[in-house]
## 1
Amino acid sequence: MLLYISRCCFRNVRSTTFHLKEIQKSVLRMSSSLMTTSSCNPIAAVCQVTSTADKNVNFSLCQELVQQAQKEGACMVFLPEAFDYIGTNREETLQLSETLEGDTIQRYSQMTRDLGIWVSLGGFHERGHTWETDRRIYNSHVIINSEGSIMAVYRKCHLFDVELPEKKVSLRESAFTIPGPKILEPLQSPIGKLGLAICYDVRFPELSLALMRQGAEILTYPSAFTVATGTAHWEVLLRARAIETQTFVIAAAQVGRHNSSRTSYGHSLIVDPWGDIIGRCGGDKPGYALAEIDLNKLRRVRTDMPVQKHRRENELYLNDWKQHL
Ligand SMILES: O=C(O)CNC(=O)[C@H](CS)NC(=O)CCC(=O)C(=O)O
C-alpha cells in the first residue's frame, strides 16, 4: 500500500533532545505498564486518514500513523471519526459495524499495549445492546490506555441530519445511528483532562462549556467534515471553542475521497487555549501533526483573562432565552 505520511506542521513541539527521547523509548521498552502520566512528555499527535469500506486497509493506515507518531515522541494519538470505515451506503455501514468486544477494538487494544501509548478512536461504528431488534448503531468515541483498557466511551449526542441542496450536501446520520444519551465527565489522560465530543457536536458551544466546567483541559472533536461545511466553518468553530472555553482543542479529521459520493475536508488541527493553531495537517492526504500540550499555558491564559469568572449568565439571561425564539 502506498502511504503518504506528511508531518504537516511542527510548531511548538517541545524540543526534546535526542538523549531524552532515547530514555523515553527505553522506558517504553522495559514495560508499558510502567508508563505513568509523569514519565511521558505531553505530546499529542493528531492524525488524518481516508477511510474506505475496507476495514483492513483502514487499520493498516492508522497503525502506520500511530507507530510513526509514537516514534517521534507522541504519548497519545488521536484518530478521526470513522477511523474504522466509511461505508458506501446505509446497509454497508450497518453491516460492517461491531461491538466493543469485536476485532477492531481488540486490535487497537493490542496496538496500544505494544506501543505503550494512549489512543483516541474518534468515531467507532458501535453495535448497541439493542442491535438484534433495531439494527441501529452508536457513533462512539473510544479512549484506550497504554495497557489496552477501554477508559471511556462517549456516544455522539448531536446527529448530522442536514440537507444543503446548493452545496450538494445531504446526510442523514439518524437513519443508522442512535443519538447518545449523555455527556461524559472529562477523564485524566497522559496529556491532560480530556472532554469527549464528536464532529457535529462542535457546533453546540453549550456542550464544550459543560465539559470545561467539569474540568476539561482538552476538548476533542474527531471529525469527518464535508468539504462544503469544512471550507466555511471548520477552523472558525474549532478556534472559537478553544478561545471561549480556554482549553486546548484536538480535532482529527477524515480527508479526501472515500467513495464516489463522499469526500472529507481534512485539515486536522490542534489549537491552544489562546486560539493559536499549534498543529495542523493539510487538506489533501493522510498524515499527522504533533504538538506539546503545555497545561501551564492554559493556566496562564485563564489567569490573565478570567473569562469564566466574568460570566453573568444566571443573572442576565439563562432562564430567559427560550422565550425569544
Ligand atoms: O457516516 C459515518 O460513517 C460517520 N459519521 C459521519 O461522518 C458524520 C455523520 S454523517 N459526519 C458529520 O457529522 C459531519 C458534520 C459536518 O460536516 C458539519 O458539521 O459540517
## 2
Amino acid sequence: MAAADWGGKADHLAGERATAQFDVDGMKVAWAGSRHAVEVADRMACLVASDPVFRKDTRTMLSRKELFKDTLKKAAHAWKRTVELHLTEEEANLLRLYIDQPGYVDLHWVMFVPAIKGQGTEEQQKKWLTMAYKFQIIGTYAQTELGHGSNVQGLETTATFDPSTDEFIMHSPTLTSSKWWPGGLGKTSTHAVVYARLITEGKDYGIHGFIMQLRSLDDHSPLPGITIGDIGGKFGSGAYNSMDNGVMRLDHVRIPRDQMLMRLAQVTREGKYVHSDVPKQLLYGTMVYVRQTIVADASRALSRAVCIAVRYGAIRKQFGSKAGGPETQVLNYKTQQSRLFPFLASAYAFRFVGQWLKWLYTDVTQKLESKDFSTLPEAHACTAGLKSVTTSATADAIEECQKLCGGHGYLNSSGLPELFAVNLPACTYEGDNVVLLLQVARFLMKTVSQVASGKQPVGTTAYMGNIQHLMQCKSVVNTVEDWLNPAAIKEVFEARALRMAVNCAQNISKAPSQEEGFSELSPDLVEAAVAHVQLIIVTKFIEKLQEDILGHGVKEQLQKLCGIYALHLIHKHLGDFLSTGCVTARQGSLANERLGKLYAQVRPNAVALVDAFDYTDHYLGSALGRYDGDVYSALYKEAWKDPLNETVVPDGYQEHLRPLLKQQLKLSRL
Ligand SMILES: CCCCCCCCCCCCCCCCCCC/C=C/C(=O)SCCNC(=O)CCNC(=O)[C@H](O)C(C)(C)COP(=O)(O)OP(=O)(O)OC[C@H]1O[C@@H](n2cnc3c(N)ncnc32)[C@H](O)[C@@H]1OP(=O)(O)O
Ligand SMILES: Cc1cc2nc3c(=O)[nH]c(=O)nc-3n(C[C@H](O)[C@H](O)[C@H](O)COP(=O)(O)OP(=O)(O)OC[C@H]3O[C@@H](n4cnc5c(N)ncnc54)[C@H](O)[C@@H]3O)c2cc1C
C-alpha cells in the first residue's frame, strides 16, 4: 500500500528495508488480524488518499470556523461515498478512520446509536435507529455537565414525569447542570440521548437516558426552551477543534413519555416506576462499548507516532565517528533505541490486547442477550483498565516521539503535535484514567476477598487462584537468556500484581472502615490496578504468540517485541518488582541486559516493523514519516504553505515594524 502511495520515487529508506529479517506482508496480516482486514484497510485508505476532498495538509492553518466547515464537508462527502459505493459497515468505519478528522459522526455512530441499541426497547430501536442509520437525524451523547463528569450519579439535569400530559419535563435547574462537552452538540446534532435524574410521584430514581430532539429538522434552529452552543477552542491547532463540543441548557422542555429509554426501567402511564430484571449498571453499557474501541484507537495513534519517529530516526544523522567516518543515523544511538523501541513494542502489544478485548466485549454482549450477567464486572474492569493504561501510555509516548524527532518534531508538518492533541483527551473522555483505575482496584479488592473465602476466580483474575504459590515464589531467572522464557516473565508479572493487590487489601482492612481505607490507599490501589492491567497485556501478547502466525520470521520478530514490552516494564517498574520480592536486584539487571540485546536485534528490522502498520502518507500526515524518507524536501515544501509566507513582506510591516526600525535608526544617528 504505502509503496503504491510513494509512486516510484527514490526510496531513501531502501537500505533499511533491505536489512529486514522477516516477511513484511506476513506482519501486516498479523497486525491487521487477517488477510481480509489488510485488503479492506488498503482499499479504504487509498479511497481517502486519492480524494481531494479529504486533503488535510493545511488543516492546522485553518481558522476554527473554516476547520469546522471543512469537517462538515468531509463528513457529508464520506456519507455520499458510503452510499454510492454501497460500503459495508466495516468499510465505512475504516473510511472514517482514514479521513482522520474528529467530527459529529463519531458521536452519532459510536455513542448515540449504541446507547439506543443498549438501552432502548425493540420498539424504540425500530423507530429511532431507522432514522439514525439513514442520517435523517444526527445524534449525540449528552451525559457530562459543567459541574459533574466523573460522578455520573451527581448529574443534576431533571426529567420530571407529568402524568397529566404523559410527558417528561426536561430541565437544567442550575448553571452547573448545563450539559457541557458532548461532541457534535454545539452546532450539529439534531437529537441526543440526554442523561437526567428521573423524578416521578415525587421520588428521585437517579440517572436515566432520554431521547430528545434539539434542533428543527427544517432550519436547524434550537427547539423552544433549549439554549445551545459550542464550548470554545481546545488544545492545539487543528486537532480536536474540528469537533463542536457543546453546551446546552434546558428550560422545562417537554418530551413524550416514550422517549425515555425503557429497556432497563419504565415509567407507566400512571407514573409508576418499574425496574426490569437487568442490572442497573447496563445504563453504563455505552461507555463500556466505547472504552473497548478506544484501546484500538490508542494502538493506532501510538503506531503512527512510532512510525514517524522510526523512519525519521533512520534518515536523520548527527555527529560522525571520531575517525571522520560518515555521520550516525540517530536511530543507531542506543539511547534513541531504548526510548523508542519500547513504544514500538507497546504499539504491537496494545494492538493485540485490543483485538482480544473486542472478542471479550462480543462474548459478554452475547451472554447479556441470554440474560447471563455474570461476566459484566470483568468486562467493566477490563475495558476501564485497558482504556486507562493504553491511552496514558500513548499520550506520553507521542510526546516523547516529538522529542525523539528533535526540533522538526515540534513542527505541525511532523504530524506529531496534532496527533498528540487529538489523543491526549482520550486520557479523560470516557472516564478519567485515574477514576477508571480505581474502578479496576475496586474489582480487584472484591476478587481478593472472594479468593480469601475460597472462591475460585475466573477470566483475567484466574491467576489469583494460584495464591499459595504466587505469594511466596521467587523467580528462577539466573541468566540473561532465562528472561526469554515466557513462563518466567508471566510468573513475575502475576506475582507482582497479586502481591500489590493483597498488600492493599490487608492495609484497607486495618482502616476504621472499608471506605476510609480505600480512600487512604487510593494511590497504591491505582498502582495495583496498573500492575494487573499490564499483566493482562503481557499475557495476551504471549497468548498471541501461541497462535499460528504465518510468514517468514514474523513470529520471531513478535517474540522479540513481546520480550521488549515485558522487560521494559520490569525495568521501568523495578521498584514494584523489588519491593514485592518477585525479583532480585540481580535479576532486574539481567532483565535490563536482555533488553539491550533485544534492541540490537530489532534495530535492522525497525523500519520494516513500522511499514507493517501499512499506513499511507496521507493517513500519517507527516513530512518526517514519509514512506520514501524524503524528509528534507518535504519539510521545505511544507514550510511554504504557511499563510505567513503568502507575502514576502508580512502584514503589519507598515504599521508596526517599519516605524520601529525607522525610529531606532533615527535615534542611533542623534
Ligand atoms: C454504516 C456506517 C458506519 C459509519 C461508521 C463511522 C464510524 C465512526 C468511527 C469513529 C471513530 C472515532 C472513535 C472515537 C470516539 C471517541 C469519542 C469520545 C467522546 C467522549 C464521550 C464521553 O466522554 S461520554 C461521558 C463519559 N463519562 C464517563 O466515562 C464517566 C465516568 N464515570 C463512571 O463511569 C461512573 O460514574 C463511575 C464508574 C466512575 C462510578 O459510578 P457509580 O458511582 O454509579 O458507581 P460505583 O463506583 O458506586 O459502582 C457501582 C457498581 O457499578 C459497577 N460499574 C460501574 N461502572 C460500570 C460499567 N460501566 N459497567 C458495569 N458495571 C459498572 C461498579 O463496579 C460497581 O460494582 P460493584 O459490584 O457494586 O462493586
Ligand atoms: C475532548 C472531550 C470530549 C468529550 N466528549 C463528551 C461527550 O461526547 N459526551 C459527554 O457526555 N462527555 C464528554 N466529555 C466529558 C468527559 O467524559 C469528562 O470530562 C470525563 O468523564 C472526566 O470528567 P470530569 O471532566 O468531570 O473530570 P473530573 O472528575 O472533574 O476530574 C478532575 C480531576 O479529579 C480527579 N478525580 C475525580 N474523581 C476522583 C476520585 N473519585 N478519586 C480520585 N481522583 C478523582 C481526576 O483524576 C482528575 O485528575 C468529553 C471530554 C473531552 C475532554
